[in-house]
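Same chain as my last thread, 297 residues:
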Amino acid sequence: MTGRAVQRTAAQPGGAGAWIDGLIGVSIFSASLVATRLALTGMDALFLSAARAALAGLAGAMALAAFREKRPPGRDIPALMIVAAGVVVGFPVLTALALRTVSAAHGTVFIGLLPLATALFGALRSGERPSPTFWLLSICGALITVGFAARGLGSAPGPGDALMFAAVLVCGLGYAEGGVLARRLGGWQVIAWATVLSLPVSVLLALMLSPNAFASIPMQAWAGLAYVALFSMLIGFVFWYRALARGGIAAIGQLQLLQPFLGLGVAALVLGERIEPAMIGAAAAVALCVALARRFA
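reply #2:
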């Protein structure tokens, strides 16, 4: 399929395909915090953030060249810079810094707020006007998700919490802006151009912050970097931005309510954490909120 064919597909009306794309994207993103934690076992947070953006940018540049994509018009550059600032630079840097002091499980508390942030910025940036019932369901889903994730986290708020909250805000803006752009440029083209725009800075920072001894970095850290660079930063967005463009930013954004539960499942598989029965019940309640929100969006 050519790049132009992909672009035409992204512009078609939403439906089941948009929700499937969105679920695939969320499933890929759900492993990001675990992969980041693995990468941080052998890498500095700032180097990790720069390296993942640089690797994603190089892969995006190769894809754009392979499909012979034309440069986006000048009027889209500011929006692409917002996407880059939000999802290529802002969210990775802020979460990596936060995860130096808080656990991946703690971070899922804030990920539960991401659907609300996406819907709010979607309403501001795209003119979407979901119904009051949609907002009520969105808030209920967020409360269930945050309430479940926050169980047993008795620690007082700290710098890590502030960093995670800021990460949610910039990511929500990047998601909404990218969803609007994807209607014109195509889903994968948006994230590819955003990572390419970031290349001059990301490559320079990666070189400046590179470790003195690469041989001492464990394989699990390299695996974590590879995942967040290629999947979290690039491949996941191919599905996610296409879904937002076809199905609506606010409606599709509610799928993110499932991300913490999927993330806890990944943590169970990778880190050996136990899956509690309460998790299954909470996930089912959230899934019901997502299904109803789709109807009333």
